[in-house]
Design brief:
Layout lengths: L3 E7 L3 H12 L3 E8 L6 H14 L7 E2 L14 H4 L23 H11 L4 E5 L4 H9 L3 H4 L2 E6 L13 H5 L1 H10 L4 E5 H6 L4 H8 L4 H15 L29 E4 L4 H11 L2
Parallel strand pairs: 1-2, 1-4, 2-3, 4-5, 5-6, 6-7
Length: 279
């Protein structure tokens, strides 16, 4: 049985760094490429950080593409208070790869091409604002039907982590989130903020995770240090429901496509994956 093909769309902060490392450590996964977007940090930082993570994992062979620098509409925002001004905990590496290592092809074009070259085989995992995905489906409306699956983040019971009702990625570009949820008629799976809160790992595991005597663990410890020290607040400026994902319990919306809301995770398996990612 062949490997699962993944295409990652990221706004690489500390959390995306963890996700990339998890994917690279999975023996049954093939990462076809990584497209970058604005979000946790500015686009240029997102690109640099992605290249830096790949260097730490000795996977410079994976192509990285520059994507959207701003949302479709509305104001720019970032999560620098949480991830650091550079997106990776303000722990710079003088030997980090430069932006000259990026592919000349843009992220949206690469996303369309890679999915088209592997019809029905690619799982698209988007862990940042969905701007690249929205632009891609506007350029190629047939793109979703070529995907094996789409995995994104959001909220379930209107419990936000950025506004009262909004999860960061949706609030950072609500219009793109709307386009993706209405036009990507492929198997869609949403890992909500509530899902993360209900399945959180204890700090004792984090200590054990970072204590591994490997270069990857030391790298994660450096970039994670800022996150562990930050006091988190809630941004409530603007309309309360902007970026809120609305669930149609009464089936009043004219949408035939249904998304799967992820609620549970095998924590022991996940712990093993986390540990393996830093070995």
């Amino acid at each position: 049985m062949g490997k699962t093909k993944l295409l990652l769309d990221v706004d690489t902060g500390v959390d995306d760094a963890q996700g990339i490392m998890l994917a690279l450590a999975a023996p049954d996964v093939q990462v076809l490429g990584i497209t970058c977007t604005h979000g946790n940090t500015a686009l240029e930082n997102s690109c640099r950080n992605t290249l830096r993570v790949l260097k730490e994992c000795q996977r410079g062979d994976i192509p990285v593409y520059r994507g959207s620098a701003e949302p479709l509409l509305g104001r720019m925002m970032d999560a620098s208070d949480f991830h650091g001004k550079d997106g990776l905990g303000d722990a710079p590496d003088p030997q980090a790869p430069g932006l000259d290592q990026l592919q000349a092809e843009g992220a949206v074009a690469a996303l369309i091409r890679l999915v088209t070259e592997n019809p029905g085989e690619v799982n698209l995992v988007a862990t940042g604002p969905l701007t690249n995905l929205a632009l891609a489906v506007k350029l190629d409306p047939s793109l979703p039907e070529k995907l094996k699956g789409l995995y994104i983040m959001g909220v379930f019971h209107s419990r936000g982590n950025t506004t009262v009702c909004g999860e960061f990625n949706f609030v950072a570009d609500p219009e793109s989130a709307f386009i993706v949820l209405t036009q990507y008629r492929c198997p869609t799976f949403i890992a909500s903020w509530e899902f993360s809160c209900r399945n959180k790992l204890p700090w004792s595991f984090c200590d054990e995770w970072l204590a591994q005597d490997t270069g990857k663990a030391r790298f994660m410890g450096r970039i994670y240090n800022h996150t562990m020290e930050v006091a988190v607040s809630v941004e409530t400026e603007g309309q309360y429901a902007r970026g809120m994902m609305v669930l149609d319990y009464m089936e009043l919306l004219p949408h035939k496509h249904k998304a799967t809301i992820i609620k549970k995770v095998d924590q022991e398996k996940f712990k093993g994956m986390m540990m393996n990612a830093l070995k």
